[in-house]
Amino acid sequence: MESALLVEKTILVVAVFAITLFIAMYSTLVERKVAGFMQARFGPDRAGPFGILQPLCDGGKFFFKEEIIPAGAHKFLFIMGPTVAMFTACISSAVIPWGQELTIGERVIRLQVADINVGVLYMFGVVALGVYGIMIGGWASNNKYSLMGAVRAASQSISYEIGMGLSLIALLMVTGSLSLREIVAQQEGFVNWNIWVQPLGFLIFLVCAFAECNRVPFDLAECETELIGGYNVEYSSMKLAFYMFAEYINMFVSSSLMAALYFGGYNFPFMYDLGLSQNWITIIGVLVFFAKILAFIFFFMWIRWTVPRFRYDQLMNLGWKVLIPLAVVNIVLTGIVTIVKDTYF
Amino acid sequence: MQSLSNRKKVLDQKPLNFWERMYLPAIARGLGITIRHFFKPKATYKYPEVERPYSKNFRGQHSLKRDEAGRERCTACGLCALSCPAEAITMISAERKKGEEHLYREEKYAAVYEINMLRCIFCGLCEEACPKEAIFLDGSHVPPEQLRKDFIYGKDKLVEPRFEYKKEKEITA
Fold first, then answer.
1. Where, in this chain's numbering, is [4Fe-4S] cluster 1 bound (chain B) (predicted)?
2. Least packed by Cβ within 10 Å: which of A89, A147, A254, B60?
């Protein structure tokens, strides 16, 4: 039994890892495609039909680029930077419930790598760790632009983590659970989705997720126009690719987190009214979940090619003077509504 | 002072109202604009497969014309070289020998005719100056070359290819 569990989890881990990397890989292509389409061009379409081999070409090119470690750089930390960024990006997908349960013969397989009862906290912690990759890399480069990018990234992510955490507290007041599996299971069907009870919380979470992922309009850490690339100026070859890749993995993970926390995860409307067997519900649920994730990834890109970058003081104002008070108000409102509902209805 | 063009606009910068300060409506509008562009037709020509059409009055590479009997029209008068503001054209004239009547229309012809494509500004003045309708800028782009000397086009590249003309034999005979 134990070895079967081990095999099951190993397969799940490998599958999740592969899917994460695959989606992150193709996000790079899709991003360029979306950028092109929004700017009246086609985007890359030369490598294979519709350019589907483009990510492979990019990867191959990165491999063959010269590996440069600047003379003044702290060599160990310089290598640590992208490693940490990649590592933290990858481990965050462990607690996301991809689907319900598959029954194969006697065995019931839960489509989640680890159902820990503090899943949301784990997620939060890992996301907070993500900034270390950028900080270490930026500092170790021994370059003023990298350092500025790193400092910006650090202060930005600390500022927005507060807003994010506060918006999550309101959500947890509604769900009453920290386990992601539990939270998703509560949002059965369509009307139970958390977005309907926490629209403001979702908005705050969304904005903070953009900031945590270092995506436009909050990409001040890499800000080409001011910092010529920010924390990754000195990086080349696969180390640079790791940083970029980590960004896309973060995007994927935060998309899946938003889909799971606010948009019902694998739940879809009328899921129990169609007379499907449990296995089919699970399989369709997984597909629905991925559809939601991809929609969010598209939204990330859509925003990127629409909204210009914030100025740094605007970023800080938005984080501290708008999002945090709003999140607090949201908590209070949620509390009042919960009490009123419990007492009078 | 009174504006003569009537196009002057006074910039009025009111402080943003609450709705505008919220950013979100403006962002939503921006998103609407970008998604509309997403579905619009694209301006790109997929070049090797689809070629971009030239405008009707496009001036490209020169060609030295032949007449209806297939003889070179150029008489090496040098007016094109004289009119050229970039001094790109040069030629050496020669006298037509007996038995060459089927090759050159006039008694004098250009034995060497060179245009330096790096100097040429494609203004079309040579075309205008030519009294014999011998030169036209009706080709496509000048292709890239590795060496400067390859941009000096001689008669081999400039003169129109010779077609099989019916009258040719009659003239020689």
1. 74, 77, 80, 130
2. B60
